[in-house]
Write a structure and sequence with these properties.
Blueprint lengths: L11 H13 L4 H19 L5 E6 L3 H15 L4 E5 L8 H10 L4 E2 L9 E6 L11 H13 L3 E4 L21 E5 L4 H4 L3 H5 L1 E5 L5 H7 L3 E3 L2 H4 L17 E5 L7 H12 L4 E6 L4 H7 L4 E4 L3 H8 L6 E4 L6 H9 L5 E4 L2 H4 L5 H10 L3 E4 L3 H7 L1 H5 L5 H12 L2 E4 L5 E3 L5 E3 L12 H14 L4 H19 L5 H7 L5
């Protein structure tokens, strides 16, 4: 991770420290502002060559300074430019003041802007560091721009969007494009921030990688560059047991579909053997609907203990379509030294027994991965789910540390967190994954990677990414069955 600084997501507070460290290293901070503003001007000219007028909205901080540099560059290119400023322009200080004075423009008040056809707005009012609700004056402009459907290019982050949590602070521009500098912030990738940012461009304005690396922290965008070396690689001597045996628990005869999709996706993801452990009354249904997946009768804890006596049975997925919450708790209590993915009903089963689950995870020798969606997360971690001041990343990190398990907090912006504080945000999932059974497929992919020997955090991160890739292959209108058939191993 330390060699991949461009994948890190930099908190706005930390980004301010990076800027300061760049200045302390001898880099003139105005030079960084100049490069940032020039990058904004270049981007808007490239993407909006037919604009009749560029309207630069500036604030009183360094984000506004970037806007004044962009305005000067646009004027020098021959473009028609208008600048509107929030607050008293006389209050500008430091580099932002220098940028204003060099721009040669006379800004108009922000509330004097009325969008007209042919405008392109450059939003340089607030950057990523905003931590309070936006003023009413800006809200009125945001609403007017939205009604007029004027395209917006945001500088660093759309004004009004929290750079840490990715949520609007009262209101936010919806940008077609966002230009940021050096590294993404959490607000660029967390929902709804990702949609509000539009297409994101990251420009290198000259801060050395060693400074970014020194401040990078433990949050990054999910990418194969992070986990590919931890995944198993097949060789000529590989056989089915070396590729791992995954056991997927099934519910009763009328509810076997979830376990079947989990099992199929696990086979497609590379597990050598997949067995569905099911109640005896469900075996006939499973036998006529499965071919490559094996079946085994496991009705109760005694049956499971006998199954566990075979040391090759080391990896399990429990929860999809399982149904019996009391039996789920019994089964989990026997799996403390195995690799286990707990999903759906296996999570809900511990709604009123959270400490028992967490104690089992932290006291055992197994590898646990929990895969809750938002509702299931709230059942296990109600205090974290209710805390609106925490970002989704921070919630997942706290939940993972508390439970001792790797946490896959699902959604359009799935967060994968480890107990040691590392967290990844996934960005490759298409909207079509929001369909019944999609989570069952994800559980099977993660289970397959665990069965093949991948560490829990890397298995979870790779599984989420592969799940997204399968969604793209399956296309719009996919069903969970389509998704399971579209799963491929990495590589």
């Amino acid at each position: 991770m330390k060699s991949l600084p461009r994948l890190f997501l930099i908190d706005p507070v930390v980004m301010a420290r990076i800027d300061a460290a760049a200045g302390q290293s001898g880099i003139p901070l105005y030079d960084l502002m100049e490069r940032a503003g020039q990058a904004v001007a270049a981007s808007v000219l490239r993407h909006y060559p037919r604009a009749q007028r560029f309207v630069v909205l500036c604030g009183g901080g360094n984000n506004g300074g970037d806007g004044y540099v962009a305005a000067r560059a646009l004027l020098q290119s021959g473009a028609v430019v208008a600048v509107h400023h929030l607050g008293d322009v006389g209050a500008l200080r430091g580099d932002a003041r220098t940028a204003f004075e060099r721009s040669g423009v006379t800004p108009l008040p922000l509330d004097g802007y009325s969008p007209i056809a042919g405008d392109v707005v450059i939003d340089a009012v607030f950057g990523a560091g905003l931590s309070r609700d936006v003023p009413q004056e800006l809200i009125r402009v945001i609403e007017a721009v939205t009604r007029a459907k004027v395209p917006v290019l945001a500088v660093d982050l759309p004004s009004g969007l929290c750079g840490r949590r990715g949520v609007p602070l009262g209101a936010s521009f919806r940008a077609e494009r966002t230009v940021t500098f050096m590294a993404r912030k959490p607000g660029h990738v967390l929902m709804p921030g990702r949609e509000l940012c539009g297409k994101l461009e990251v420009f290198d304005i000259g801060i050395p990688s060693r400074i970014l690396d020194a401040h990078a922290g433990s949050v990054a965008e999910n990418s194969p560059l992070i986990w590919r070396d931890a995944l198993p690689h097949a060789d000529m001597e590989t056989h089915k047991f070396r590729r791992g045996h995954l056991t997927v628990f099934s519910g009763p005869a009328h509810a076997t579909g979830a376990s079947r999709m989990t099992a199929l996706s696990a086979l497609k993801a590379g597990a050598g053997i997949v067995t569905i452990a099911a109640p005896r009354q469900a075996l006939d249904v499973l036998s006529v609907t499965l071919t490559a997946v094996m079946n085994a009768p496991v009705d109760d804890a005694d049956d499971l203990q006998s199954w566990l006596d075979d040391g090759r049975h080391g990896t399990f997925v429990l929860g999809p379509g399982f149904g019996d919450l009391e039996k789920a708790r019994q089964f989990v209590s026997l799996l403390g030294d195995r690799a286990v993915v707990l999903d759906a009903d296996a999570i809900t089963a511990f709604r009123d027994h959270k400490e028992a689950l967490f104690g089992l995870v932290t006291s055992g020798t197994g590898k646990f991965v929990l895969t809750p969606h938002e509702g299931e997360f709230a059942r296990l971690f109600p205090d974290l789910a209710a805390d609106r001041m925490l970002s989704k990343i921070e919630k997942a990190q706290a939940a993972s540390a508390r439970s001792g398990a790797v946490l896959v907090y699902k959604g359009a912006d799935t967060v994968i967190a480890a107990p040691d504080g590392w967290a990844l945000v996934n960005t490759n999932a298409p909207a079509s994954l929001a369909t019944a059974g999609s989570g069952d497929v994800l559980a099977g992919i993660i289970g397959a990677l665990l069965a093949q020997g991948a560490p829990a955090f890397e298995a979870a991160a790779a599984g989420v990414w592969l799940h997204g890739e399968a969604g793209h292959r399956a296309g719009d209108g996919l069903t969970a069955e389509d998704l399971a058939h579209a799963v491929r191993p990495f590589g």
